Structures are given as structure tokens and as C-alpha cells.
Amino acid sequence: MSTDTDTGFGERRGEFGPGEMPSEYEVEEETEEYKGLGGRLVEGILGDKMALFGALVVLLFVLTAAFAPYIAPHGQEETFAFMKEPMTSSAADVDGDGRTEQVFHPLGTDSFGHDILSRLIFGARVSLLVALATLAVSLTIGTTIGVLAGYYGGIIDSLLMRYVDFQWAFPELILGVAIIALSGGLGVVNVIIAIGIAYIDDFARLVRGEILSIREEEYITAARAVGMGDARIMFREMIPNAVAPIIVQATLMIPLAILAEAGLSFLGLGVKPTTPTWGLLLSDGRQFIDRAWWISVMPGLAIMVTVLSFNMFGDGLRDAFDISEGEVEER
Amino acid sequence: MRRYIAKRVAHSLFIMWLVATSVFFGLRAIPGGPVRAMLGQEGTPEARRAIREQLGLDDPWYVQYADWMTDLLVGEFGSSITSSEPVAAVVGQAAPKTFSIGIVAVVVGLSIAIPAGVISATRKREPVDYVATVAAFLGLSMPAFFVGILLALVFGVWFNVLPVVGYTPLKEGIRPWLEHILLPGVAVGLPYGAVVMRMMRSSLLEVMDEPYMKTALAKGVRSRVRLYKHALQNALIPVITVAGIQLALVLVGSVTVEIVFGIQGLGRTLVDSMLDRNYPVTQAVILLVAAVLVFTNLAVDIAYTAIDPRIRYGGDSS
To answer: In this predicted complex, what is the ipTM?
Structure first.
């Protein structure tokens, strides 16, 4: 499994000189041929069944969100019979020719008569949009802060650490609620800012740590010696070498952002009360739980499957990049 | 050790100060200010002036800041705008409910996570390990409110064995209290347990790989003693950190789960106060939540000194 903590033989090599290596160790020692980043990635993901499954579902999710209007069997506002069970049909006049047809609802309909499958497919758009936008916010700001703090140290570094301390006292959702309270309104931009800010410190800390170790590498000394400027060293030499953990962190942050967005929507503080988001759909179904369980369970399953597959994909990426578990932050 | 504790206490107080200060400036940065928010668009100039006076908004900011800080220190939060009850009373009614959920959640979470993590690590790559890992993955992927809905559906609607709405105070008996709090507590506790279990597993695996475990095996220490005395004690240290930090997850989970189960706890109070623009209540809840997190983490840090002698003796392992 991915949580494996075996360090492998690479780390033990230092303990024995070449001649002193016990023979039983020597048998298993092999030097891996160098593979490019892309090759390692493809091989790592294809070789790990859970990661492959995760990657496929993630791909499916992205395609669903992108082509929602073409995939969804019905429009998000179309209404049919109320609270039809999953796998049943209702009679409706869909094509507007004056006669009613049987309309099939694989996931049933909700208390307004919306087709749940169609609402979920449109809801995937909001989840993906918010997740990617929050990722962009926290990745850009966090990486910038982290690079500056790691490279220059001093006051930027202490300010960053105080900010990290500060975020400790604020769980993401509470911070999000507070930011929405302060910005004084609901809306997609507010949700993105609220969730994005909450994850800046994860990236900042990660990148700072990477930069601190890269700073000691010889090629940085070499870059200085040939007269490269600070900005060029940071952006051309350091960041490209810290890219693997950043990608892994980003992949593991997306599910957290999806969960946070679902939480905010569930609380009624999400994008807009009329936009179908998974959290809101789940919350709408709550009062009908005794009559129509599927209204809230289906969106919950959608959240679960999406988050689960992002987590499995991210775990697989981490293994493929060979990054230790402590290095990237999980919730 | 005393110096270490003093340093941690000072640090926690500093964070609380930082939180309080940012809430102070945050409230004053609201577009239109709290007065507009309180009165709405229709407020007469006189009413506005009266409120400004009452809130001391005409004083210079440093006077306001000093007043506000002293009010906080004596626990004076003003009164709720919607019900004109004192904020302390509103929060005082909500807090025990949330803390009850939190306690059940932590007890449930840890009592599943730690044994499961140990079993999973000691039987690595056996079926039981796979089952536990998949369960933990599922737990990480389900928001607490969805777990809550599922529990309410199964135990409240299908089997009808536990109530799914409302709260009974502890003083009316342990049984009714527990009956009302069990499902929300479990809903919050399962995702929390999943995080702690993963940490327990990987931490124990790491420790079992240490050279001193091999030494213990070589000198013939029995496997039970090896596991519980040599390995577990050391493996628990990072687990305790995670369990402390993730209390945030418990509080956040409780915010949403309270709404599933119709409990007027801190989370629901926070959201309601926000939607009503009831700023005195919002700020009190935010400060309380921050204080709980900061001081439980302080308690965890101090508990460390008891568990990990390296901190007791060491210089800068903090």
C-alpha cells in the first residue's frame, strides 16, 4: 500500500562501505536506470491499481463537468413527477408535441421533481470550477510566499511562520465562514477566496521546506558563481526542482477543496442558493430523509466517489514521485 | 521543561491575541460597517448615531481597540442583535451541545483508530490491513454531514432505534443525552478516526523498522512486550500530535453535523448569526472556537513532555 514506510535500501547504503556490505543485502541492491519524469509517472500510475482507478474516475469527473450540457439527460431546471425512486420512470411531455412519454430517472427525482442525475452532472461543474480556482489561488500565493521565505529567510520567513500559526487557530471551514461573513455576501468569487486562503499555508510551508534544502545544493552555488540573479535562480533553478511535491500537494488539495465547497454549500453559504451544487442538493434532501432517502444520499455518494478517487490518484502520484508521506500536508 | 511550557503558553497567548486583533479589524472592514449591517438600509440617522455611540465607533481606533480588548478579557461580548439576549448566554447554551458531540467523536474516533492502526501495521499486507486501509480511505472521503445523513437514515429511519433530531442536556440523565448525541458524535468521529488511523499505522510501521526493534528481537524480548513497550510508546508520539491538530476536523464536522441533526450548537449558531448579520454572536463563536483549538493544542504540547523525555531533557527539540 501507499502508506508503506519501508525506506528501501537506498538509504542504508551509507552505513556500509562497498566492501563491508553483507552479502544478503548485496543481492537485492540494484541500480535503477534513470527514467524521465513522464516515464516514471506513467509507469507508477499504471502499475498501481488503486491509482489507476483513481485517475480514471478523475478523468471521467473532469469530462462530465466539461461536457455537462451534452451528457445530462435533462436540463437542470426541468421538472417531472416529485420524489420518484431511482430506476423508475415518470410521464412527461419532453419533446413538446402534446403527448406524454415515459422518462427514465436512474437516480430518481427530488422534491421539486428535478432529475437527480442531471442535477448531479451540472453540480460537478461547480465542484470542479471551485476546486481548480481555489487551487490556483493557494498555489500561486503559497508558492510565492514559500519561495521568498525559503530563499531570503529573515523577516519574510518569520512573518510566514506567524501567519501559519494564525491559520492553526482557524479550521478551513470556520475561516471560510468568517471570510464570507466579512466579505458580506454569497457568490462564487467569495467561496473561492474563502477556501483558497485557507490552503495558502499548506503550499507555503511545503515550498519553503523544499527551497531550504535546494538552497544548499551545489548547482545553486554554481548558479550564483556564474552570476545569475536572485529571480532567475528562484524561478529557473529552484522551482523546477521542487515541482514534484507541489504537484502531489495540489492533487491532494483538490479533494479537500471539493469537501470544503460541499461543506459551505451544505451550510447555505455556497455559490448561490439556486445553483445545484452537491452540498446544496444533499442539504435539500435532508428534510425528506424519511420519505425519499435518495435525494440526499446520491449527492453524498457523488462527493465521496470523487474525493476518494482524487485521494487514490494523489497517493499514487506521491508513490510514483517517491515523496515521503510527511512531506506533503494532508488534512 | 518549565521553560518549554512557559514558551508554549506565551506562544498560545500570542496566537489568541493575533486572532482577536484580526477579528477586531475584520469587523471594521465589513463593507458599510457593522452599523449598516445592524440597521439595514432603513435606519434613521438618529438610530445610526445612537448605535455608533453605543458601540463607541466614534472614538479613535486605539481607544476602541483597548475597550474591545478589555471587554474580551472580562468576557463581555455585548448582546445579540436579533434576540437582545447577552451573547454570553447565547453561546453558553450552544457550547455544551457542540462539546458533547466533540467528546463522543473523539472517544469513538480514537477507540476505533488506535486498535485498527495497530492491527493494520502488525498485519501489514494481510487481508485485515487492506480492509482497514480501504475503510480509512472511505472515511477520509466522506464529509461528516454525509456520514450523519447515512447514520440518521439507517438508525433513525430504517431501524428507528435512535432519535435523529434534537438534544437533551446531560443533567436530564446520561441515557437520553447519549441517545441524542451518539449519532452526531459517531458521524464526526469516523472521519476523524480515519485520519488518526492512517497516522497510527504509518508511525508504527516506521518505528518497527528502527534498529532498536531488531535489537529487542535479537535479545529475545517477547513479541507482546516488543510491540506494546518498545514500539507503541514511541509510535504514539506523532499520533498524539495529529490527534490534537485534527480536533479542528472535529469542530468543523460538528458545525455541519449539528445541522443534519437539528441541534442548536455552536456551528448552527455561527451560521445563523452570519446570515442574520448578528456580528456580536459571530465574533464570539469564532473567538471561542479559536480558543478551544489553541488551548487544546497547548494541552497536547504539554502532555508531550510527559510522554517524550527528549522534550523534557532536550534543548531545542521544540
So the answer is: 0.82
